[in-house]
Amino acid sequence: MTAHLQNLVLASASPRRREILSSIGATFDVFPAEVDETPLPGETPPALALRLACLKAEYASARASGVCIGADTVVDVDGVSFGKPRDRQDALFMLRALSGRSHLVHTGLALASGGAILDRGLETTKVFFGDLPEDEARAFAESGQGDDKAGAYAIQGLGALLVARIEGCYYNVVGLPAFRLKGMLGELAQKIAMEGDVRDA
């Protein structure tokens, strides 16, 4: 078992992120972060994803002990951020915008302890949607599968029928780029081993 994947705190209520962490052998507690996810004026999608990841990690780490993982996923359509849809009509709008074209999925990652950020990073995957007929777009929106997901879809489940192909990390589209996270945690563990205290990392 990899030592740096043990005794973590996930600052997210996302079942998908919990599943990914569990699947790679991590042990962790869950401490969902309560932060305002409204984009700042002029904020780009990558900047939004990274800022929110840091806010979530800071929030959780100020209230829970150990290394906290903050993550936030944003769908980027020509520089416009698509977060979670407000309602089913908003979900339909997003699906229409994604149909028959490519978009980017950014996941910001942040590691924190004691309310301070220790490391941060960003993973980006390019996703290609097939053409989505209006009746299928409406049916998917009404299914509710995209209600709590950035861009109103998930690549797993029914969403697998929307995605023609991807370029980059699959798990990033799900919401937690496992390989990137493992690397960040490994580097942090090395730094802690050299310096002796996570608070000084």
Describe the model.
By secondary structure, this protein is of the alpha/beta class. The protein has a single domain (3-200), classed as Maf protein (Alpha-Beta Complex), CATH 3.90.950.10. 35% of the residues lie in helices and 25% in strands. The protein contains six helices and seven strands. The protein has helices at 15-23, 45-61, 88-98, 134-143, 170-174, 178-195; strands at 8-10, 28-30, 67-77, 80-82, 102-113, 116-129, 163-167. Strands 1, 2, 3, 4, 5, 6 and 7 form a seven-stranded mixed sheet that branches. A hairpin with a 2-residue loop joins strand 5 (102-113) and strand 6 (116-129). It is elongated, with a radius of gyration of 17 Å.
List its traits.
201 residues, elongated, 7-stranded mixed β-sheet, 7 strands, Maf protein
Short overview:
The chain has six helices and seven strands; from the N terminus they run βαβαββαββαβαα. It has helices at residues 15-23, 45-61, 88-98, 134-143, 170-174, 178-195, and strands at 8-10, 28-30, 67-77, 80-82, 102-113, 116-129, 163-167.
Task: Describe the protein's topology.
Blueprint: E1 8-10, H1 15-23, E2 28-30, H2 45-61, E3 67-77, E4 80-82, H3 88-98, E5 102-113, E6 116-129, H4 134-143, E7 163-167, H5 170-174, H6 178-195
Parallel strand pairs: 1-2, 1-3
Antiparallel strand pairs: 3-4, 3-5, 5-6, 6-7
Helix pairs in contact: 3-4
